[in-house]
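Project standup — Tuesday

K.O.: blocked on the structure for the chain from last sprint. Re-posting the sequence here as requested.
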Amino acid sequence: MSAILLRGGDLVTLDDEGSILRRTDLLVRDGRIAAIGEAATTDPEVAAALERGTAGEELEVVDVPRTLVLPGLVNAHCHSPMTLQRGAAEDMPFSRWLPEIWRIEKNLEPEDIYWGAALAAVEMIRSGVVAFNCMYFRMEQVAAVVRASGMRAALGETVFDPGAGTEAGDVLERAVQWTASIASDTEDPEDSEDPAAQRLRVFLAPHSPYACSRPLLEKVVEEAHALGVGVHLHVSEDQRQVDESRRRYGTTPVQLLESIGVFEVPGGCVAAHSLVLEPRDVEILALRGVHVPHCSITYAKLAMETFPLQPLIDAGVRLCLGTDGPASNADMDLFAVIRHTALMQKYMARDPTVLSGDTLLRLATRGGAEALGFADAGVLRVGALADLIVLDADAPHLQPAHSPIANLVHSVKGSDVVHSMVGGEWLMREREVLTLDEAEIVFEAARRGAALLERAAGERPA
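H.V.: unblocked you, prediction finished:
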């Protein structure tokens, strides 16, 4: 038997009933949640191991009193290697920020992407994220980080029109080849030689309707059907993009993508941001089951127009939460995004009742897990994937503990996470990351980040 018994924590299950189970045991076996409550200790194998006194050999027992145990968070949209550009383009509107970031990115070296993504992985593990959805380039480097870190991830090689003169993205052919190599392993992970196959998903990732022509997007749809994968892209980030789409195509970005078939690919579609929407756009997103990651801190920092989320939820749009890239958000802490989203949406609506209760926790867990293609994650129930985190509930800013839900939405910090696991394997114990060499990563990322900006400074326009 290979099992872990968590004893005595307060379980915030995020199940359909919103159950909170005080001082409750949870048993993990073979990567999934095997039992909850009394059944965890009366399980025959567990009971036998405890009676024989061989728990240390056959069963790992972890006492977690005065903690909150909940599903691990899922970062539904990010650009993890962009930790190297953290703080490199500050106090700029989006229209200036984006070209500046693209200019810096042209100076990236392949290994920069590995170390930037590794730094993001450490930061995410430390703050309770167990899975992330990342689109960038040289994604074989990010895949290597996923394999080493033990996290789950959905990855997409960003595609632009060749010769577009913007970012350092590769053309579709290379992206398709790489995607096919991963998709073949993840299609039947049990038979794969890649031990991380069960933790990886892939998307095709055309950057956006404004950076990809209609013929390229049509080709992406064709390839997505051939590979059996989904699409991850940016959509309607500001009014200027919507106006340009109307000028070029006579319709909005969402309606353009609908006409091309982007929302009907076999692996689903993740349409990040979707901030400027017409009523028909909302109807389409809901009808097609499109997943829409909302990255509130980025929008506030870049002073971007945003959209009230409650009407999207009421319309049936499948929302989730993301940090976006650290060059815009500045960090990878999804608990910070949860709180910021709650505050911004209540303020925008002038209504403190919007996004009430555990709504945002569900978007940050089950909502994100479904977007990435891990439908068995994001909830504490028997049979679910054992992707969970344990938080210290004794911290001063979490007392008195009148409401665990209110604390998780408005008071918890990423640094409150004590333990983290994916598929029953520990990523972090007692705030120590076990799967990655944190000291080496911090050193190497700092060195490479400085060198990247030095190279970029050499070609700054006069």
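K.O.: great, moving the ticket to review. The chain has two domains: 3-70+380-433, 72-372. The longest strand covers residues 3-12.
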